[in-house]
Amino acid sequence: MIFETLDTTGHEQVVFCHNKDAGLKAIIAIHNTVLGPALGGTRMWPYQSEAEALNDVLRLSRGMTYKNAVAGLNIGGGKAVIIGDPAKDKSEALFRAFGQFVDSLGGRYITAEDVGIDVNDMEYVYRETEYVTGVHQVHGGSGDPSPFTAYGSLQGLMATLNRKFGDEEISKYKFAVQGLGHVGMEYVKLLRERGAAKIWVTDINQALVDKAANEYGAEAVGLDEIYDVPADVYSPCALGGTVNEKTIDRIKASVICGAANNQLATNEIGDELSRRGILYAPDYAVNAGGVMNVALELEGYNRERAMRNMRAIYHNLTRIFEIAERDGIPTYAAADRLGEERIEAIGKLKLPQRTGDTRFEGRIRGGH
Ligand code: NAD
């Protein structure tokens, strides 16, 4: 059964990690290492079944292959899940046992934080393996990726505005921003600094809404009202799946561009956006700033360089829009195509990533 699934998904390797004493049940999925070692976070979640955990890790790791490829990184796609409740089941032994499994892969898989995991958990993983990104800055880590994700999203936004309207003057447009967390608030700040004509915001957390209103002059609207405002751009920066059958008729914006993952409920919604002439900036291309930032840790982290690299997101979006036009396909499909084309072209140049690859020796530990 599993191999049948892997035939379809195209994964290279799936590792089941088990340590009874530490209570570890984890799965590491390496989807594709043609471009480089597989990089992707570890998620801890109380999965109801092993099948659910397996599905999730296979889906997420495949997504990382596309995201990393489109971001122009020399990085492949992978992901890990730990089955357990982050509120109850965490321990030093658990994360160190997990770290040993990551280490056993010799750099084919490099981990990072994801849902349910924080920088303190990663400290334990780091004791067992150097194949970790997003560790504390004292170890040469890059710290919170959110400002980079927000700045990268702004680059993606400018490319999208340019495509749709022929200019990228933020000050000419009105924005609806859903979610004012780590990324959303910074994004609102960047929009304000560039003189956005109007910013509507919403969040479950009233304190964040007040902050956006007081500090950045945004207008607060209710959670459900964000779809109805007469914005030019809808920027989802909270949850996935908000562009769906129920919201599509309400969204007035002619551009959708934001940082949230998995914005489209289904591919059919993406097709419909395209039919309606609403320009959708593919989420994983827009929000790649975070992964581009941690990827730099592998070469020796440099914050200024990381900020400069964010400009690539502008060009990636432009390329995606060109492919959509060239092939007559919706933008979400064009993003996948860009990723596939890059893997194919670069894959012809060199062999897949192997254990012992020396390209990433310059990283964190030992400072060599
Ligand atoms: P966060 O948890 O800091 O912020 C999310 C915010 O959304 C919170 O303030 C929350 O209250 C709000 N929210 C939740 N449900 C809402 C709803 N129904 N309506 C309005 N607001 C709601 O998360 P974040 O790090 O800012 O990430 C935001 C999104 O961007 C997520 O989808 C995340 O997967 C994606 N993303 C983040 C990064 C990063 O660097 N942090 C990188 C890539 C993608």
Say what the CATH topology of the largest domain is. Rossmann fold
Ligands in the model, by name, code or SMILES, are:
nicotinamide-adenine-dinucleotide
Relevant CATH superfamily of the largest domain? NAD(P)-binding Rossmann-like Domain
What is the mean pLDDT?
93
Indicate the radius of gyration in whole angstroms.
Answer: 20 Å
Helical percentage:
40-55%
CATH class of the largest domain: Alpha Beta
Structural class: alpha/beta
Using the alpha-carbon principal axes, give the shape. globular
Oligomer type? single chain
Portion in beta strands: 5-15%
Number of strands: 12
Distance between the termini: 44 Å
**Count of distinct structural domains:** 2
CATH architecture of the largest domain: 3-Layer(aba) Sandwich
Description:
- The chain is α/β, with parallel strands linked by helices and 368 residues long.
- It folds into two domains: 2-67 and 76-132, Leucine Dehydrogenase, chain A, domain 1 (Rossmann fold), CATH 3.40.50.10860; 146-340, 3-Layer(aba) Sandwich (Rossmann fold), CATH 3.40.50.
- The chain has 13 helices and twelve strands.
- It has helices spanning 2-9, 50-70, 92-104, 119-128, 146-165, 182-193, 206-216, 267-276, 283-286, 289-295, 303-309, 311-327, 331-347, and strands at residues 13-19, 24-32, 38-39, 42-45, 76-83, 109-110, 174-178, 198-202, 219-220, 233-236, 255-256, 279-280.
- α8 links the parallel β11 and β12 (279-280).
- α5 (146-165) crosses α6 (182-193) and α6 (182-193) packs parallel to α7.
- It is globular, with a radius of gyration of 20 Å.
- The N and C termini lie far apart (44 Å).
- Bound molecules: nicotinamide-adenine-dinucleotide.
